[in-house]
Structure formats: C-alpha cells, structure tokens
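Holo prediction. Input below; ligand is TLP.
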Amino acid sequence: MGTPVIDLRSDTVTRPSAAMREAMMSAEVGDDVFGDDPTVNLLQEEVAGMLGKEAALFVPSGTMGNEICVKVHTQPGDEIIVERGAHIFNYETGGAAFLSGVQPHTVDGERGIMRAEAIRREIRPAVYYMPRTSLICVENTHNRAGGTIYPMPVIEEIHALARSEGIALHLDGARLWNACAATGIEPSAYARWFDSVSVCLSKGLGAPVGSVIAGRKVFIEQARHYRKIFGGGMRQAGILAAAGLYALRHNRERLKEDHARAAWLAGELSTISGFGIDMETVQTNIIIIDAERTGRKPEKILAALRQRGVLMSAGNYMGLRAVTHLDVSMEQVRTAARIIREVVGAA
Ligand code: TLP
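Structure of the complex:
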C-alpha cells in the first residue's frame, strides 16, 4: 500500500520490534513437547509467579487458552455461564460447544460487567433433567463492551457465589494487563479469585504469538494433555516464548499510553455527528462506536476509511471499533481522528 496505514482494527496487529526480534533470535530452545524448552519453561514460571498460581502453560492463542480451560473444568452436557458479549461466546467459533460439548448460558452484564446477583438467577438447580452449571467465565477487560474493567468487589462477589455453589471460575484475561495498567492493581490480585486464568502476550503487549494459562498444578497437567489433543503442542517454541518474555518485561507499563490515546480519540470521535460513544466504557484501549445515526452501513464507512489509510473493525451491531496499541503514535491518532471526521462528515 502506498499511503501509510494507521491500523486501529485491533491491538493484535502489532509487529515485533527490533529488540523483541533480537530476543527471539538469541532464545535458547528445546523440544517443548518433552518439556525441554528452557525459554518456554522460564516464561511459564514467570507468568505463574505474576499471577500467583502454582503452574502455567504456554499456548498458541487466547482462544486455545480459553477453550482448554473450559475443557478441563467441564463435562459434555454441562453449562457454562458467560456474559452475552463475551469472547468465548461470540468469537471462538462455537468452540466451547464443539470441543467441550457444553452449552453456553448467557447473562447480561452492564457494560460487560456481570453482577453476582444476575448470575445467581441463571445457575441451574441440581436436578437430573437440567444441565449442570460447572463454570462461570469472566472477561477482564471486556472486549466487546469497550475494554471495561471489572471492579474488584464485583469479582469478589462472583467468587463467593461460585465457591458457595461449587462452580469453577475462569478469567479470560486476554487484556488483564490493560486492567492492571489502568488500575495499578497487580495481576495476582485479580488472578487469586479464579481457578484458571488465560492471559495474552499477542495483544497490547506486542508479542507476535502466544497466550499463557495458569492455575493449580493438577489443573495445568490436565491442560497440557488437552493442549496436545487440540494440536497446540509446540516444539522449539522458545523462539516465541522469548518474544512473550520481552513483551512482559518491557511493554506493560506503556499500556497507559494506549489508554491515554484511546481516551483522547474517543473524546474527538464522540463529537462527530452520527457517532455515539458511551464514554463510560472507554476505560482502557478500546473504543466502540455506534454508527447507526450516521445512516450509513458500518462496512461502507470502514471501506471509505480504508481508502484514506485508516483501518478500523466492525464492533457490535451497527458499530465500529477502534483499538490503540504500541504501533500507533499520538500523531497517528490525531491524523486518524481528522480523517475519520472528514470521511464520516462527507455524505
Ligand atoms: N480478540 C480479537 C478478536 O478475536 C475479536 C480482537 O481483535 O480483539 N479473549 C478476548 C477477550 C479477546 O479479545 C481475544 C481476541 C481472545 C480471547 C482470543 O485471542 P486469540 O486471537 O489469540 O485467539
């Protein structure tokens, strides 16, 4: 493409920096299916430590991380409780049904945040002709709701409910790092309430590939078994783990910059006629725009923006999504705001 592109489709679009590639180049490697890759082992230890869990496992994607956790926690025919906009429910291609034979049961959150009381009403009574509710999944930050952060008291409430009902609790923490950067809360302080946690290295942190799941030792042993079944046993994966380690060590603090850029951009875009943005949801690096009042189809707007070198993605119904990340500078964000105003303003 001739014109420089400002890619706001997702924080997954980042490319590894020269220093990250250097770390990948010099990574010590071994065969990780034999447990022999020292860099993978180091990454797993480091993430387990950060999350305050006994053990962790490197997996190729956030989707696989979530789906392995669902598999370990459930039996076919069970129900899992997910928020209506959850990634597990909307963007994992029906994976929970396909791979684990479970039925997702949705709960409406407020800006993506489920309350324990709402969940309680959806838990099945223990009668033989109903599915067993075996897992509750929380997404923090909540992608589709606009990168919203779970307040800690809400997590504690959900944890208390799950414990009292004997239901496992999973955290889809693809962007837990963003929640931590925004609140100053340690990853382990979030993770301690969950039986399993999945975190991504390839979103805001800028690694090219990889996620890590964490939990008790016995949980991770079972997870390793399913990772192999799901085709996620990798060999000299240290080359990827090195990028993850680099990302964890260098790119967590700077997420605050992405948040500041998203806040600025959301403020600008909210003044564009026909755009609706719930500014309360702009808590981290994601902006969800309701474009219905523009009278134009989101695909049309996206195509027109693409022509001008700005990429955004489709959000909810009639919605657009813009995500800030380490490969978009403040200057590019300013340019994008100007172009979006010109494109959307023009009938
Ligand atoms: N999200 C992607 C798309 O799939 C929507 C994005 O561009 O935001 N959990 C959450 C909360 C996620 O947002 C994602 C990716 C995943 C899990 C899955 O991660 P990957 O893409 O590594 O499988």
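The chain has a mean pLDDT of 97. That is the main takeaway for now.
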